[in-house]
Amino acid sequence: MTKMGAKLDREQKIANALLKQKLRYAKMLTKRQARHTKDKKGVKVRQRLIPLKKLKIMADQALSLWVRKRDGFRCVTPDLKCKGCMQGSHLIKKGRTRIRWEETNVHCQCAHHNYNHDQGFRPSPEILTNYVINKYGVGEYNRLCALSKEEVTSLWIRNKATEVIEKYK
Ligand SMILES: [Zn+2]
């Protein structure tokens, strides 16, 4: 390759790189524009979704308060050990998102009984389990157990949490 040829080749490479950069920039712009929508007056409004974590907490709080009202702010499994404030206690852990906001899975319990349900020195999950079976029947308990095994998508969580907040607010 001659000196001249090498120079042209280098120039071509630079031109190609610039073109690539330009295209990339054009793509970035469209990406950025996609994040913006305009309102009626044509003013740019940035659409932001509530983070999923926050949405879940909001739904938890709404249902928890509703449940405590339903149960009359009294521990549903009262005994001499009752202690602490009233809380929305889950029969099946709320980590199983499918049954996190089922009315029959959440009950008003004192802090002691909520903690002792599955934690502490001697966890006693049978106390709340017996209460649910006595009140709603074995059928409902089995339905909750079966439901709890289902996996959910983040879209499902978003829709369900929004529904729960609307329903129990
Ligand atoms: Zn209690």
Ends apart, CA distance between termini:
77 Å
Rounded mean pLDDT is: 86
Q: Helix amount, in percent?
A: 55-70%
Q: What is the count of helical runs?
A: 6
Morphology? elongated
Order of helices and strands: HEEHEEHHHH
The proportion of strand residues reads 5-15%
Largest sheet: 2 strands, antiparallel
Q: Enumerate the spans where pLDDT stays under 50 for 5 or more consecutive residues.
A: none
Ligands: zinc ion
Q: Your description of this structure?
A:
- The protein is mainly alpha-helical and 169 residues long.
- It has two domains: 3-46, no CATH class; 52-168, no CATH class.
- It has helices at 3-34, 52-70, 111-118, 126-136, 138-148, 154-168; strands at residues 36-38, 44-46, 86-90, 106-110.
- The N and C termini lie far apart (77 Å).
- Helix 2 (52-70) packs parallel to helix 6 (154-168) and helix 4 crosses helix 5.
- It has six helices and four strands, in the order H-E-E-H-E-E-H-H-H-H.
- Helix content is 57%, strand content 9%.
- A hairpin with a 5-residue loop joins strand 1 (36-38) and strand 2 (44-46).
- It binds zinc ion (ZN).
- Zinc ion binds next to strand 4 and helix 3.
